[in-house]
Specification:
With about 625 residues, the chain is an alpha+beta fold. It is built from 21 helices and 19 strands. It has helices at about 20-30, 50-70, 125, 195-210, 260-285, 335-345, 355-360, 375-380, 400-410, 425-435, 460-475, 480-490, 495-505, 510, 515-530, 535-545, 555-560, 570-575, 580-590, 595-610, 615-620, and strands at about 75-80, 80-85, 90, 95-100, 105, 110-115, 145-160, 170-185, 220-230, 235-240, 300, 305, 310, 315-320, 325-335, 350, 365-370, 385-390, 440-445. The strands form 5 sheets. A 7-stranded mixed beta sheet has the order 12-19-17-15-18-14-13. Strands 8-7-9-10 form a 4-stranded antiparallel beta sheet. Strands 1-4-5 form a 3-stranded antiparallel beta sheet. The radius of gyration is 42 Å and the shape is elongated.
Length: about 625
């Protein structure tokens, strides 16, 4: 239906032209939509030229430019930073930006202006008789205000105006329309009292960055900074509460974040600016840099900085974040800091006004950036580059749950441990903290990652050793097979621990057919069963107990002096189940014949008593001697 045309710069618009009949059909079906803002004068030969036609052309061009300005994004293009210079004086750097309505505003030079000389935006309504309440004098202005630029225009440069009728007279009219930018103050609606002017800053930050509250400025005003004033004196000036960079809202057009990227980045910049002022104010009053975030902020961005003084290096506790938030300290290469901050910006802010049970799901990682070349040195000195931090004020009574209070009444209270102030590991962490007066923190995601072991390296002969041990158990001591299988299938057992246990029990001392081998095998399995977790550390501790190269010689000597020790299977079982076979063998090597015979007789007497705690009594008796004081215990 429409004629197809191509766009040529020399020919102008490439819009399809429809005739009157086609327009009537489209209007009937309501499939043509008119833009009343865009209407050009149709020029043709014979038309009388009038000033209104040229004005319409100018308005059309301005409207098109405004639409194009909104398409590229609104905000500050460059410059326009606001700084506080005196009690009521601010400085605005040169720069340019685009208002939400698409108009461009420009400051060709930096300006310094007294805020008492700026009229409120609402006072413009009073000039036209539209305001019901009179405005207070500017010198006594109090409250929160948004400093902004508003595009305006005025006429100037008078020229001669010729008559348009026969009886008309010559006159003078302004010949130019001059565009400019006016600096204005827009009152920000806030319910806080003027006496809490400092607390209102944190509350406004929460409303803007968490609740996405509107700024309340007209569309033709470009916000530059928020200012708090008390009787005409500036109390604080915050740029990034309202300043937004141009085009940033389009940077997350395909994202699924809780807020536009421009708002998230502005929150980080606003927080850093306010934190810097807090640190400066505390230093000037000699109060130090150790403080809680909730004293000055109601919401924290997902990434930011904190003073390292809020982390106490003596006991590695932190004061900055609430006690319900899990915090860890980590050393990272400095070139990985930016990607971590970038990734955390996708997360929601930390709302410090939430109750404690809602903050328990939050997790914070405090970063200590160091040059990448120093990372191997830290790895060599530390067992891990992540150090959990505890809260400096844990267990606050008013925040405890009822079950926690009841549990605390029956808890076993041990004396506090003595801190090792010369720990080399702690000194490394203290050194890392001392070189960074300010640290970065990032929020972490709550991802449930499975820890199931899919594969683990084992020694080459581990499988063969396991088969040999299983055969030995089945032939010599069948009743131990089920206990050994239960140890291997224990969900708390690790593959390294099982491999170490198997390697120990496959030794010739354990898999032989003699009575000594059966007693040592049963005693070792008993000790493995007493481990809380069958891991590599626990298995190695038992291996060290049975690691005497002369193992077995002492037990043979005891049997020769006290034959009743192996006279009955019940006695053999009771002695082996004591879990003190290494002690019995070591005593058999060191004691004299008389002392060893006396000790062996006591062991046999306890074993024959048939008491339920006979194995425990035997273990206590064997471990009482000074000869076994250096033997490591596992239970």
């Amino acid at each position: 239906m429409f004629a197809s045309t191509s766009f040529w710069l020399a020919q102008g618009s490439s819009r399809d032209l429809i005739n009157t009949d086609e327009l009537a059909k489209l209007q009937v079906t309501q499939t043509v939509i008119q833009d009343e803002r865009r209407r050009r004068t149709r020029w043709f030969d014979g038309r009388f030229f009038a000033a209104k036609d040229q004005i319409r052309e100018q308005d059309y061009i301005l409207t098109r430019f405004a639409d194009l300005g909104r398409a590229g994004g609104t905000g500050v293009i460059s410059g326009l930073l606001v700084s506080h210079t005196a009690q009521a004086t601010v400085r605005i750097d040169m720069g340019q930006g685009v208002t939400p309505s698409g108009e461009q505003v420009l400051l060709p030079t930096s300006v310094t202006i007294d805020l008492t000389q700026i009229a409120n935006f609402q006072q413009l309504d009073a000039a036209f008789g539209l305001s019901r309440l009179p405005s207070e004098p500017t010198i006594n202005r109090s409250g929160l205000f948004i400093l902004g630029l508003r595009p305006v225009e005025y006429t100037g440069n008078p020229i001669a105006s010729y008559p348009t009728s026969v009886n008309g007279t010559r006159g003078v009219q302004d010949g130019d329309i001059i565009e400019a930018a006016a600096i204005i103050l827009v009152p920000y609606p806030d319910e806080g009292a003027t006496t809490e002017i400092l607390q209102r800053r944190s509350r406004v930050a929460r409303r803007i960055f968490v609740e996405n509250a509107a700024l309340g400025v007209p569309e033709n005003v470009l916000p530059l900074a928020m200012i708090a004033m008390d009787r005409g004196v500036i109390q604080w000036l915050d740029v990034f509460l309202v300043r937004r960079e141009v085009g940033m809202e389009h940077g997350s057009i395909l994202g699924l974040g809780f807020a536009p990227r421009a708002l998230r980045e502005a929150h980080v910049l606003q927080y850093l600016s306010q934190l810097s002022e807090v640190i400066t104010e505390r230093n000037n009053s000699n109060r130090g840099q150790s403080f809680s975030a909730s004293d000055y902020f109601e919401v924290l961005p997902p990434a930011g900085m904190l003073p390292s003084a809020t982390i106490h290096s003596a006991d590695f506790s932190q004061l900055f974040f609430p006690s319900q938030i899990q915090c860890d300290l980590s050393i990272i290469p400095d070139d990985e800091l930016s990607p971590l901050i970038e990734g955390s910006l996708l997360l929601s802010p930390v709302n410090l006004t939430f109750p404690g049970d809602e903050l328990e799901s939050s997790s914070i990682l405090i970063l200590v950036p160091v040059p990448r070349a120093q990372i191997p040195s830290f790895k060599a000195k530390l067992t891990t580059l992540v150090n959990p931090l505890r809260s400096a004020a844990p267990g606050m009574v008013f925040q405890r749950k009822p079950i926690e209070s009841l549990t605390a009444l029956t808890a076993l209270r041990l004396p506090p441990p003595v801190l090792n102030v010369v720990s080399p590991i702690d000194s490394v962490w203290k050194q890392a903290l001392s070189t960074n007066p300010l640290l970065w923190y990032v929020c972490r995601r709550n991802l449930q990652i499975r820890k199931d072991v899919i594969g683990k390296r084992v020694t080459a002969d581990a499988v063969t050793s396991l088969f040999n041990l299983t055969d030995a158990l089945a032939k010599s001591t069948p009743q131990l097979t089920d206990r050994f299988t239960a140890l291997r299938q224990n969900p708390k057992a690790t593959s390294d621990g099982i491999a170490s246990m198997t390697g120990l029990l496959t030794g010739t001392v354990f898999v032989g057919s003699s009575t000594n081998s059966r007693m040592f095998l049963r005693g070792a399995i008993k000790e493995f069963e007493q481990l809380a977790t069958l891991d590599l550390s626990g298995a190695n501790s038992i291996a060290r107990r049975f690691g005497d190269p002369n193992l077995g010689q002492g037990l043979t000597r005891v049997q020769a002096l006290v034959p009743d020790l192996i006279a009955t299977p019940a006695t053999i079982l009771t002695v082996a189940e004591s879990g003190a076979m290494p002690e019995l063998d070591l005593l058999g090597q060191k004691l004299s014949d008389a002392d060893l015979k006396t000790l062996g007789t006591q062991v046999v007497t306890i074993a024959k008593s048939g008491a339920a705690d006979a194995p425990a009594q035997i273990a206590k008796l064997l471990r009482a001697g000074p000869e076994v004081a250096n033997l490591e215990l596992t239970s």
